[in-house]
Design a protein that fits this description.
The chain is 25% helix and 26% strand. It is elongated and about 70 Å long. Strands 1, 2, 3, 4, 5, 6 and 17 form a 7-stranded mixed β-sheet that branches. β5 (90-94) and β6 (99-107) form a beta hairpin. The model has no long low-confidence stretch (mean pLDDT 93). The chain has helices spanning 12-23, 55-66, 133-136, 153-160, 179-187, 235-239, 276-302; strands at residues 2-8, 28-31, 72-75, 79-84, 90-94, 99-107, 111-114, 129-130, 145-148, 167-170, 191-193, 197-203, 206-212, 217-219, 222-225, 228-231, 262-264. By secondary structure, the chain is an alpha/beta fold. It has 7 helices and 17 strands.
Length: 304
Amino acid sequence: MIYDCAIIGGGPAGLSAALVLGRARRKVIIFDDNQPRNRVIRETHGFITRDGISQTEFKRLALRDLAQYDSVDIRNERIEVIRKKDKTHFELATEDGTLFTSNKLLLATGLKDAQPNIPSIERFYGTSLFSCPYCDGWEMRDRPLAVIADKNVYKLAKEVYTWSQDVAVFTNGEGRLEEDERNQLLAHGIQVYEDIIAGLEGENGQLQSIRLEDGTLVPRTGGFVTPLWSHSNAFGKELGCEINENGGLLTDTYGRTTVWNVYAAGDAAHIVPAQLIIAAGTGSAAAIGINGDLTNEYFSNKTQ
């Protein structure tokens, strides 16, 4: 079988795209290795009608919706290789060597995060330390919060101040604040610690304090950290897709990359801002672009 579109990634972008394409009666296959970027987060927020939903429940409801459309095939498998089969088709190989052929390709592979090199940080990430104040700031409001970042620390500290005026910034000996930035933070009562963090203390995922290398303990009960991100795979680069200014795959409004028949959606393309609802929206837009291109190609071929 030749699919109209193969979707790599079963997160909100890929699932949303599959729904739109399924409703457009397109033959679609989704490959999902079930390694979402937000798998350690207990709840997701900011998605209207689904505020506070768990990643597991969101996935269950999405798969329930897709089950209505028999043209959508879902495979819980990882794609290892993608190559051009001819001018208009791609060949995809799974880990066991099974091959699939598709006309269009949607990369909805998301990103993967690596936490800063701070002892014990994984114990708290997803429970009392988070990456996005728009996603989890409400739940952390009015608490003594930490902002741990080596890049964009000034911007993140100002954002977090919206939810709590008890904020302390930690650059972990690596981040850099300009003098005027430091002065502005201090003027708003935001503490600044530029020493190396020796460890985080607390129980059951709940942060209690941050210990600096000189032994100083700074009481904090939660906060936000900037993880180091990278693409989940090299498919975009291998296919020759250009990169945008934020490091994502460059796309137009309808998810088209700079490579013909290759589309991208979700965090893989729209790195900033990154939210569940934005990823789903870009998946829907890419699906409309894919369906429109398939339709135009069909009519063009009929007149040639």
